[in-house]
């Protein structure tokens, strides 16, 4: 069995996405099938259901299967706490940008009845229940949007090389432009609104006060990466991406597909079908998905 824990805000989306499943709680589903949902914060593999006679029994069962455990508690909170308190304590320091990802496996468990726990020593993330915490820069970046690129570059290895030419569409106030500049790329930063003044002053940033949808690929010329964090309807972003793909002037794309109201599943399917591409819901994504296309 595999268990899928939804992001708190996106339970409905995970429920919609998962097939052949049973709800264990409002947030946790189990299924015999290995699926790749976008809206799971944490996936628990080879889940065991274990009968326990006491708190000590649960501790023993968990310790026998792994060292570090994160608890998801939806009932029997105090009893779950008593178990968790007796398990080895872990202290994961906040992750630094491009820093080392913890390499120890992180287990996950939950108490489903007073005398029954669900346990998985192997989960999809080395972070407890998939929660990624960066050691944030609270001074320079003008918005918290930079955390999406920090996560992408640190955890997935997707990252333009130094000297790349990157287009950043919908760049204001400049969090993404700042990250791209910091890793040594040349950034063409486009928005109808101005960049934060301290970002605009940095070297290797060319700011264009333009509507990204009016900009033609030929106005910009060849680029290594197109980044977009524009707030717009998904079909509009798809049109823009198709125009750039057809131009042959850009091969790599990282775009946030944002939803207003309901998730636009039909457009997500169209993005998904673009060759060499994938969709991820980053821990730092809100009601949006990151589409990555690399050649
Ligand atoms: C979520 S913010 C981007 C945040 C940015 N990535 C950062 O790290 O600071 C979305 C931006 O899209 C811009 N935007 C919306 N429509 C646009 C358009 N047609 N052309 C250019 N920018 C647009 C908005 O002005 C807004 O600054």
Explain what the structure shows:
- The protein is an alpha/beta fold and 295 residues long.
- It has helices at 11-17, 55-65, 77-85, 146-156, 175-182, 197-200, 217-220, 234-247, 265-272, and strands spanning 2-6, 22-23, 28-31, 40-45, 48-51, 69-71, 107-113, 116-120, 122-123, 165-169, 186-191, 205-209, 223-228, 250-258, 277-280, 288-293.
- Strands 12-11-10-13-14-16-15 form a seven-stranded mixed beta sheet, sandwiched between helices. The protein has a five-stranded antiparallel beta sheet with strand order 2-3-1-4-9.
- The chain has two domains: 2-130; 146-293, Vaccinia Virus protein VP39 (Rossmann fold).
- The structure holds S-adenosylmethionine.
Short description:
This protein is α/β, with parallel strands linked by helices and 295 residues long. It has 2 domains: 129 residues; 148 residues, Rossmann fold, CATH 3.40.50.
